[in-house]
Structure formats: structure tokens, C-alpha cells
Amino acid sequence: MEIILSAAIGILSASGIWLLLRPRSFQVIIGLCLLSYAVNLFIFSMGRLAPGAPPIMPKGGFVDPTLYADPVPQALVLTAIVISFATTALFLVVMIASRGMTGTDHVDGKERSQ
Amino acid sequence: MAEHNLFLLLACLPFATSLILLTLSPGARGASTWLSGLSLVAGLAILAGFLSGIRDGDVLRASMEWVPSLGMNLAFRLDGFAWLFTTLVLSIGVLVVIYARYYMPARDSLPRFYALLMAFTGAMQGILISGNVLGMVVFWELTSFISFLLIGFWHGAAAARDGARTALIITALGGLCLLTAMLMLGHVAGSHDLGVILRSGDAIRAHPWYGAILALFLLGAFTKSAQFPFHFWLPGAMAAPTPVSAFLHSATMVKAGVFLLVRFSPALGGTEAWFFTVTSIGMATLILGAAVALYRHDLKGLLAYSTISHLGLITALAGIGGPVAILAAIFHICNHAVFKASLFMAAGIIDHETGTRDMRRLSGLFRPMPFTASLAIVAAAAMAGVPLLNGFLSKEMFLAEAVDWHNGTWLDNALPYFAIVGSTLSVAYSLRFIATVFFGPQATNLPKAPHEPPAWMRRPVELLVLICLIVGILPAVTLGPTVNMAARSVVGPDLPYYKIAVWHGVNAPLILSLVAMGVGTLIYVFSAKAIATGPEGPFLLHRIRGQRIYDWLLFRLTWRLPRLALGLVSTESLQPQLRLLVLIALAVAAASLWGGLSLAPELRLHAFNPAFALLWTVGAACAIGAAWQAKYHRFAALVLLGGAGVVTCVTFAWFSSPDLAVTQLLVEVVTTALLLLGLRWLPKRRSEIPEDKLLPAKVRRSRDLVIAVAGGLGIASIAFAVMTRPVVSNVGDWFLGNAYYEGGGTNVVNVILVDFRAFDTFGEIAVLAIVGLTVYGLLRRFRPAPESVAAPDQQTQADSPSLDDYLFVPSVIMVWMFPVLIMLSGYFFFRGHDLPGGGFAAGVTLAIGFLIQYIATNVRWVEARITVLPIRWMGFGLLGAVTTGMGAWIFGYPFLTAHARYVHIPLIGEVPAATAMLFDIGVFATVVGAVVLMLVAIAHQSLRASRMREMDEAAARKEAA
User: Fold this and answer.
1) Per-residue b/e over B146-172, b at no fewer than 16 CB within 10 Å?
2) Residue A19 placed within a domain
3) Residue A63 lies in a domain
4) Which residue segment(s) compose the domain that A43 sits in?
5) For residue A94, which residues of chain B lie inside 8 Å, CB to CB?
6) B75 bridge partner residues
7) Cα–Cα distance for residue pair B883/B904, rounded to 1 Å
8) Pairing between strand B902-905 and B72-78?
9) What is the mean pLDDT of chain B?
10) For chain A, which terminus, N or C, has the lower number of CB atoms within 10 Å?
11) Mean pLDDT of B787-806
């Protein structure tokens, strides 16, 4: 399982990095989204994998931490998901505004001079 | 104790007045004048109260906590010298305030002007009374900054802006040098206390750092005092309103530099290096300033260069050192302040009443304005050093010092010659001022008909000229004791009383004085015509201008050089920057993990599950497909991106993270909707870009592929290495153990978000709100590209009647889903503390509810029926979160401390009622507002585009008709 997830993280981030280096703004935005999946999964996996042990506590009594998934990476990723949506929105708006002003969707606002 | 507090009051009074003045309305001319004047008078009264103690040799001290964590206090110290100087500053300040009331035109805000002037007075006074050298540097820099604002007060004029900038750059750079010098001094002396430093002169002079300290210290003092070669900022500063010039260039600002020289002469002076540097620079400035002053046509320009020259004189005295020279320097500081302030004010009156300051146009003003003329003539005579005026006395002392034997070096032997040249030139320029402006035929072509100014505008000048006369005639009973007291506090208590007298008999200084007056008169008489028609500088000197060198340097350093450097190391292109970023990240990770990244000896692996493998086969295919298709098939890429997102979401659920799975799924929905809305505004791309087939593009792609694969491999191996390690106990265990007892909730992730780490969450919702507003703000000015304005093909080809009812059934279902989604949102919210859900998930759900209405019908239909005010949602959300946090203060707990309990509600049962829930309501509302705001703002662009289209069509129809 671990090997699958790490491969998945690797593929997601490789696709994201590749797109990040592309010239068209839409490619970059898709790349950022893929990269944010990869990073979220990466942070999440730092708490180790624990199938079937959600961090929902009983009401009272002794709590054995080893029986539950680590809640800290989850809390970090939860806000990261929402924030990455916000940055995607911001970038999208910058992208369409730049497209409206410059007439091109190249990330530099002008086509590469040959 | 009363004295201590009064002293602190004295230090704070100008600043407090400045703050009060800022609150007055711009029209409050009278009130602001009275307020500032009285504040200064109050300061003078406090000083008068201190006099008896100071006269006995007391040193008054007071301190205020400043940065207690660093052990830094704002210490103040008042001795005889500081007392005299502060009194001088405040007295001239009162007169300048009165004068400015009549000088400043009605269109300027007088309270603002006075506020700056008061702040400047406070800063200047701060330099004088600082007991800590670091505090002194702070006040020193403060005078640089406030003088920038004062010189640039008429910021509409380019000359004022340039002058202010030059003054700031030169004096602030000097201030930085001074700061370094003071830090080094503090290190050498072992304390930053002024008294300690002044006492440890021997240790400082013997220290190997002495040379560096002296150089830096002198750079600070010389730049401030406009000494050659830094003198050029002072003439540029003449673009300031005249009251500012009268204040800054007589008693304050430039005098701060000579104050420093005199103050620190016991600690740093007395060496050959000090004597040679300070004396030679002072003498050079004295002669150069006087020579240029003779040739300036602008009245204030003449006075500016004369100020430079007189500052050179004081500097030279400080350089010569010795008790009498120090006393003479202090005496000349006072005398120069008095006559130069009156001359600046007189020049201001002439400018005010005639409309020009050009001496080639001014002439014969004695007849229309006899009183002002007489006052100015007396003051100018004091400047020239005519007997029975105060300027004569200190200049006489200067000449005596120059003639005196000190150390027999060549400079010491040459001093009398330099001194006589300087004195002669100063007689010549003073005479030029008197003769051209007040005598000769009466000028006829002046912009205004000259006449006497309002009486109260002249009063300050009258008072100052009176002081010139009284001090000049009766020095021993007026300023004599005070100057002696000041000199004693600098040099030491064993200074013998020096009797300042008008008549010392016929001696060398007197003869030199008379020679200077005679030769100076001759110089002016024989060169008057040549000066009036010539350039503004002697011989070839006007061609070499400090200002020009400075401008050249400034242009090179702040314009050419940065651009050159930018051209070398920077690019405006995004791709190389991102590539560099990725490569550096890779390099740093590789460098720090090289050899250190190893697998755990016993891998902690979970059993292989084929379903999960299949899941991620699909996910990886989606990711690679999205990367593949993002250029030419955006819609396909978007769908594939969604696929990768869903797989991620399932992974979260798989590994015990229901909260993440829910949030990811919901956010996935809004992200996709958002990107779909954005697609509308991108250019169509059906045919391939031909350049993509060429070799350079292929090379670029292969290179990026290598980088991407390397990055992917790296992050995958790190993830694998960490995931297979055994768990180490961490803070998460504490959260797990205490979530219920401390946070009152069983869903630990939610408890962390809204209780344990609520402050972080608060920061995050603030970011979300800011992004929402930014998106909204950016889109308000959005103009689509021309080719995107036309209605999309899908709408224009909708001729066939079958498309009229397109998606009719789904849209009805979607409208009906609205209440269901509201309920779902409430469900997520209320179970959040105990079970997966919470404010984030609930907020996004509600936002989706609104969004679906927009998708199902259209913007106009929705907005006719529902009023969504996303900005209010955000505002109330943030306010709610903050108020909840602040509520903890009432009970004496820190910000955002939560209280948790369960409330029993009949029929429903135990319900968690933690204050964290109130906070979660804030999170919920902010998320709803921000998400809806962003989506609606983008959706509205279509509406605007269609409105634009309708307007165009209407215009076209009108034209056709």
C-alpha cells in the first residue's frame, strides 16, 4: 500500500511540476492543482497510513493514541485544501484578466519571440 | 521627582503637541499658532526652572522604559551645554511659529505645518538632551526624516522634492555612519551612556578602532552640518518655506552636526587626526562657502552659502579644540543662530512683499520698507562681524584662536591666512546683500509693489536684531555667564572663567578684523558689476558643482546600475523563474538528504490491496492525461483533473480521514465549476501552434520532463521512506488524549481546528476572505479579450427548438436540491465537533447550494429570487470569529480560549455547546461568503459580456435606422 501511495504522490507531483513549467496559463493552473493534491497527500502520509482508525474519540475513558490515525496532518491538510482552492481562484482570475489585457494566454503576457 | 517628571514632560511636549495639531482642521490657523507657540513657551518655562541647578554644575537625568526586553532605556541628560542649546532651539522656535503664521499662504494647512515643525523641534531637542548615544542617533535620524517632510512641504514643486530628497539621502546616510560609530564607541567604552563615553576619552583614543570611529563619526557630523564636500544639500533645501529655512539652518538641523563635534570633543578630540581633519574641513568650508555666497544671485542662496561658511567656522573652532576654542564655538553657535534666523526671516519678508528673491532685480528697498531694511542691515552687519554686534565678538575670538600657537604644524601656521580670507569674503557678501537690495535706484519692475509687512511678521526679526545689539554691546552681563556655563559642562569644571569683552585693546585679532573689513569692502566695490552679470560661482568653481556630481552618482546608482544588474540576473519571464525555483528545491532537498535518506531496518508495510492499486492506476492515468492534454484539450484536462481529485478523495477516506475526504470532495466540485467558468475567457485553440513542432520546443519539453521526473522520484522516495518508518509519538497523541476533556468534542481534527489551533484557523479564514475580496476587486475592472466577447458557439447555434428545453429536467431537480443542500450543510455543521464535518465542509456545501442554482437556471433568474450578500457573510463570519475569541478576555483567558460543555435538549439529547462552535459559525460564514463571492464574481462576467453585446447591437441598430 505504501509503495502505491508513494508512487501516486510521485506521479502527481511529476505531472504537476511538468505543467508548472509549461508556457500556457491554463497548463500552469492545472499543474498547480495536481501539485496541491500531491503535497496534500504527502503531508497526510507523514502521519503514516492507518486504515480503519479515524480520529473520532469515545466520550471519556482512557484513550490509546496508537489506535487512531494521527490527527495533526489531517488538520493541516484540511485547511490546505480550502486555501488551495482560494489560490486557484485567485490565479484563475489573474489568468483571465491577463488574457483580457494582453490578448494572449502565454504566462509572460506575450508570445515567445523567436 | 518633580524635576524628573518635568524633564520627561519637556522631552515629550513637542511630540504630544504635534499629535494634537494633526487633529485640528486645516483652517485652524489661530488655534494651531497659539497651541504650538504656547507649547514651546512651556518648554522654555521648564528650562528656566532648571537653570539654578544647572548653573551649579548639576547634570539632570531622567529615563523612560523603551525596549525593556533589550535593556534599552530612553535616557535623558541635561547639562549646561544642552540647556543652552535647547533654550536656543525653543526660543528661535517660538519666533519662527509667530513668523510662519503670517508667512504661510492661506492655501496651506497651517496645523500640518506646525505639526511637522513641532515634531522636528522634539527630535532636535531629543538629540540635545539624549543621555544614551543610541537614543541620540534615533533622534538624529528623526530630524533627517522630518526635515525631509519640511523641506518638501510644498511638494508640488519639483525643486522642493529634489531638495528634500537630496537632504534626506545625504543626512540619513551620514546618520547610518553615525550609528555605526556610536555602536563602536559603546563597545569601546563599555556603555552606551553618554556620560560614560565622554569620560572614557583616553580609552577611546588609545583603542585600535579609534581611526574608524573618528571617520564614521565625522561623516555623520559633516553631512548634517553641510561641510565640504557634503555642503550641496543645504542650498537645495532652500526650496523649503522660509520659516523652515530660518529654523533648520539657523538653530537646528545643521547645528546638530556642530553640536555633536563640540559635545564629543572631550571623547574623540585632542589628537592630531582630529585636529587635521576637522580643522581643515572647517576652514575649506568656511572659505568655499563664503566665496560662493558672494556670487549667488538668489537671496536665500546667499544666506545658505553664508550658513555653510559659518558652520565651517564653528567646525574649525571645534577642530582647534582647547577650552577657549570650544567656548568660542558655543558662543558663535548662539550668535549665528540669532543673526541668521533674523536674516532668513527678513529675506522671507522681502520675498513675500516683492515677489522675488533675485538680487539682480531687487534694488533700493530702503525707501518702501525702511524698518525691515534697517533690521536686515544690522543683522547683515552682525554676519559680517562689525563691532558692537554679536557676530563681531565670536569672530574676534575665532581670529584670536587662529592666530594663537597650538601645535606648530603647517596647518596651525596657515590658520591665520585662511581665517582672514574667510572673514574678508564674508564682509564682501554681507556688503553685497546690503548694497544691492536696499540701496541704489528703486526697482520698478518687481512682481509686487514693495511695502512693509504686517507688524507681527516683523516682531520676531526686531527681537532677534535687538538681541544682536544687546549681546554685541554688553556681552559680559548677557550671554557671557551662560556660555561659560555651557563650555564648562563640555570641557570640565576646572575651566577658568572667560570674560567676553568688547574691547581687548589693539591686538592682532582686531587688526585682522579691520583688514578684513577694508579688503572685503574693496573686493565688493571693484567686482560688484562683474558679480551681478556673471555666473553663480567664482572663476572656474561654478563649473565643478557638488550637486552635479551627486546627481550623476544618484542616477548611476539608483537607475542605471540596478537596471544593469537586473538585466544580468533577472528575467521578466515566468518559466525560467519557476524552473529555477524547482531546481533549487531539488538541489536543496538532495543536498540535505544525500546519504541521510535511508529506509527503516524493518519496513512497516500494510497488506497490498488490489482495489487500491486499481484506484491509483486510474488516478495516475488521470494525472498524466491531464498533463498531456492541458494545452490543446482544456476541457478534457479539466475532467481528468477531477478524476485525480476524486481518487485523492477516496484515498483520504481509505486511510481514516473522513473529514478530509468530505472537504476534498466538496472543494473538488467548486474548483471544477470555477475552472469551467474560467474556460469561457480563454482563446480557442483547435489547431496546433506550429512552433511546438520545432526543435527548440522539443528540447525545452525534454528538459522539463527530466526535471519533473526527478522531482517526482524524489518526493516519492521521501514519502516512501517516511511512511514505512515506525510511528514516533508526537503532539498528535496529546490532541487525541485531550480532545474530549479539553475541547469537548470527539472529532479530534475538528477540535484541533476550532479549539486547540483556532488561531491558525482564524488566520486561514482571513486569508480566504482576502483572496475573495481580491478576486472580486480584480474582476470589477476585468475587460475580456475582444474575441471572447461574442456569444459562444453553443448559444448562437441554438436555433433548433429541441435545444430550448436543454437540461430542463436536471435543472428542475437542481432547483429542488436547494433546501436539501441547506439541510445537508446544517447537518455537516452541527455534527462537526463530534463526527466528520465542521465549518469548512458545511460552508462549502452551502456555497455549492447557491452555485447549483446559478448552473441550473441563469444569473438573472437566480438574482431575481435570492439575494446573496457574500461580502456581508464574510464580514459577519470574521467578526463572529474575532468576537468569540475576544469573549475569552472577559473571563480573563487569552484570545480564543474555548469553553466546552454539553447541553441536554429534550427530544434531541446531548448536544455539544462549546464556544468553539460559535467560532466554527464564523468559519462557516466566511467560507460561504468567500466561495460564493469568487464564483459569482466570475459568473457575472458572462452577464457583463452579454450586456456589452446587447449595447453594441442596440448601437448597431440605431446606426442602421
Assistant:
1) bbbbbbbbbeeeeebbbbbbbbbbbbb
2) yes
3) no
4) 2-49+69-102
5) 778
6) B63
7) 25
8) unpaired
9) 87
10) C
11) 66
Interface of B with A in 897-916 (CB under 8 A): none
Residue A54 within any structural domain of the chain: no
Rounded Cα distance, B661 and B652, in Å? 5
Which residue type is seen at B104? M
Rounded Cα–Cα distance for residues B363 and B443 (Å): 5
With a cut of 60, say whether residue A114 has pLDDT above it.
no
More reliable by pLDDT, B48 or B508: B48
Interface residue B722 vs chain A (CB under 8 A): yes
**A42 within a domain of the structure (yes/no):** yes
Q: Which of B739 and B879 is assigned the larger pLDDT? A: B879
Q: pLDDT class for B736, splitting at 50, 70, 90?
A: confident
C-alpha to C-alpha distance for B544 and B231, rounded to whole angstroms: 13
Cα–Cα distance, B779 to B596 (Å, whole number) = 49
Instruction: Provide the pLDDT for residue B71.
Output: 64
Out of A40, A55, A78, closest to residue B753 by CB: A78
3-state DSSP of B555-617: HHHHHHHHHHHHHHHCCCCHHHHHHHHHHHHHHHHHHHHCCCCCCCCCCCCCCCCHHHHHHHH
Longest dimension (CA), chain A: 71
Q: Which residue of B has its CA nearest to A60?
A: B740
| Residue partners of B260: CB distance under 8 A and separation at least 6 | B127, B178, B217, B220, B221, B224
Which pLDDT does position B749 carry in this prediction?
86
User: B327-375: per-residue pLDDT in tens?
Assistant: 999 999 999 999 999 999 999 999 888 888 888 888 888 888 899 999 9
In three-state form (DSSP H/G/I as H, E/B as E, the rest C), the secondary structure along B696-731 is: HHHHHHHHHHHHHHHHHHHHHHHHHHHHCCCCCCCH
Chain B neighbors of A107, CB-CB under 8 A: 574-575
**Are B245 and B238 spatial neighbours (Cβ–Cβ below 8 Å)?**
yes
pLDDT at B698 over 80: yes
